[in-house]
Amino acid sequence: MLRDIRRRWSGFARGRVLGVVLALSVIQLGSLVAPAYACGCGAMVPDGTQHVTVNREMSVVRWDGRQEQIVMSLTVSGDAHKAAWIMPVPHRATVELGDRQIFTQLSEATEPAFRTRHYFWPRGGDWPFASDGDSADAPRAGATAPSVGVVGREHLGPFDVARLTATDSDALGDWLADNGFRLPDRLNEALRPYVDQGWEYVAIRLAPQDTKNSDAPLGGTLDPLHLTFASDKLVYPMRLSRLAQTPQSLGLYVLAAHRMEPASAIGGDRPEVSFAGRLTGTSGALDRLTDGGTDFLTAIDQEFPQPERITGDYQLRRMTTDAAYRRVIYDDILLKVGGIPAWLLTVTGLLALALVAVVMGIRARRHRPVLPPPPVQAPPPIGRPHG
Question: What pLDDT digit, counting tens, does each position of 128-175 carry?
Fold first, then answer.
């Protein structure tokens, strides 16, 4: 049973990891011709009247006090042949392909501890109850600057990446329109705070990975993207998630010098920590992310049942303690002695003792000697009166 639990947890953890990263990207879009496909810190825009669904998201954030790195991975499905993804960033970003192994390594490092504990009284699946017996920065000046500036453009695997500046949120819509995509009016409004704060944007065109079949729809797990930008605070862009029409789930791996915590719930449920501790023995791409003293990992999960209540971006701060924590999953097993439930032995034993006590009481009464009645004393003789 414990092995089955571990297997199920391992699958869940991998799904959770792959579900957070493009939380920076797909949740933001709320009303295209097709439904909204928001997912955390960006906006996914399918082409034309087609749609794309984000099935899983994963995100790793690394922050050393001056620079922030985000590695994101996205699993999508739908009938769209192309899509664009927009992500706001506080400073100019560089973009490169990420390494899938990072998520596998983090999933293994944060795997919960599995322990066994026993319970005494039977539960729903135990006999006799079982029926079958189975148990943000200041605004930048420059009114004369163009509304949209393309500061860089490159092809990374299946991605066409453009790094943009914008002094007008509508200009982003124009840029997408020029590239064959329509930006919803609601998203224009949602981007306005980022424009006012002087943020920049990473715009990415996604295409099917099946190059042999150009008519194939966009689907499967996309290659991870690795963004790097300057930041004096750890921020995870989530403001656009308020446009989502369905509940959102955030799973975040945070690598820093110390244990981190959200500054606020920003309109969601109470954040939960599933792991906190320093990583050792890392290798490959994960080793590079933990180099330089950013080896303390905090894994955070949070639900947003009402995305429209999201108040801003996700900011994290250092905790007062670097206390380690690992989630524990218990495998509860009915306590048995010699294969027999301990409660059954106990109840049977108590009943047997009670029965013996009753029998002995009855036998004691039967063998108790019968005492003869006390002798009857004769009345004293009546004498003659004196006179």
Answer: 776 544 443 433 333 344 577 888 888 887 778 888 887 777 777 677
Residue 355: count of CB within 10 angstroms of its CB:
10
Amino acid at 50: Q
Residues 6+ apart with CB under 8 A from 387: none
Q: Where are the domains of the chain?
A: 2-334, 340-365
User: In whole angstroms, what is the distance from residue 100 CA to residue 378 CA?
Assistant: 114
CA distance between the termini of the chain: 110
User: pTM to 2 decimals?
Assistant: 0.70
Nearest to 317 by CA among 234, 248, 251, 379: 234
CA distance 206 to 72: 14
